[in-house]
Specification:
- There is one protein chain.
- The chain is α/β, with parallel strands linked by helices.
- The protein has 2 domains: 109 residues, Rossmann fold (3-Layer(aba) Sandwich), CATH 3.40.50.12500; 113 residues, Rossmann fold, CATH 3.40.50.
- Helices cover 49% and strands 19% of the residues.
- The chain has a 4-stranded parallel sheet with strand order 2-1-3-4, with helices on both faces. It has a 4-stranded parallel sheet with strand order 6-5-7-8, sandwiched between helices.
- Strand 7, helix 8 and strand 8 form a beta-alpha-beta unit.
- Helix 4 packs across helix 9.
- The N and C termini lie close together (11 Å).
């Protein structure tokens, strides 16, 4: 039975429940999901300080889970920003995935497929503080060359989650702003709290839309299944 550990780096149980719901829907028939909420930190990560705190909370959540259940087959750090991913990779051989890295790599591949050498991707997310942090993450991952822009809307992901109708309007406008950038051939909707908000926009766009939660969970389950030894 492949086991996936999903760690929500913020302290919002509602976000953990939302992610667990989507993870359960995508799980293989024998998959076992463990969902953990950060033991300390902020209800929503919307600043560099909150992100730094999450860097410590994620390993703490991992240690607590391992003490109680042993190591899983894969871990998904479910925050679009991947706090704690590098720390976990340094302390375990278990594959550790982050929402942002998975989504950005897929968007970059789609941009290259649809746009050739000039194909680029953009990111749309909530919270202005995420723009420099996501650019820095893209640089660290070697994914900045094809990143055209990070377009943010003023409300945080938690605020967008609380008002889906208004969120759709804001995200739609942000996607069209992203499409105005030269060469954009794919858009990432980033943010764990935006799991239910990406799909309605996909039919309206002329380029592929990458839902960070869906692609992250699919990749995580695939990794867990691949890492599980066959008997």
């Amino acid at each position: 039975m492949p086991q996936l550990l999903l760690i929500n780096p913020n302290t919002s149980a509602a976000v953990t429940e939302l992610l667990a719901h989507h993870a359960g829907a995508l799980a293989p028939h024998d998959g076992v999901l463990h969902a953990r909420t950060a033991p300390f930190g902020e209800p929503y990560i919307a600043s560099a300080a909150a992100c730094a705190l999450a860097e410590q909370a994620v390993p703490a959540a991992w240690a607590s889970h391992v003490a109680a259940h042993g190591e899983p087959d894969a871990v998904l750090v479910a925050c679009f920003g991947d706090p704690g991913v590098a720390a976990l990779r340094a302390r375990t051989r278990v594959p550790v995935l982050g929402l942002a890295e998975v989504a950005m790599r897929q968007a970059q591949a789609l941009a290259a497929t649809h746009g050739g050498p000039d194909g680029r991707y953009a990111i749309v997310t909530g919270g202005a503080a995420w723009r420099p942090m996501l650019w820095a993450l893209a640089e660290r991952l070697g994914l900045a060359a094809r990143l055209a822009e990070v377009v943010t809307v003023a409300p945080s992901g938690a605020e967008l989650m609380a008002d889906p109708a208004a969120a759709q309007t804001l995200l739609r406008a942000a996607c069209h702003e992203a499409l105005a950038r030269p060469g954009v051939q794919a858009i990432v909707i980033g943010g764990a709290a935006l799991a239910d908000l990406a799909a309605p926009l996909s039919a309206e766009l002329q380029v592929p839309l990458v839902d960070n939660v869906q692609v992250g969970l699919r990749a995580a389950w695939h990794t867990a299944c691949s890492a599980r030894p066959t008997v």
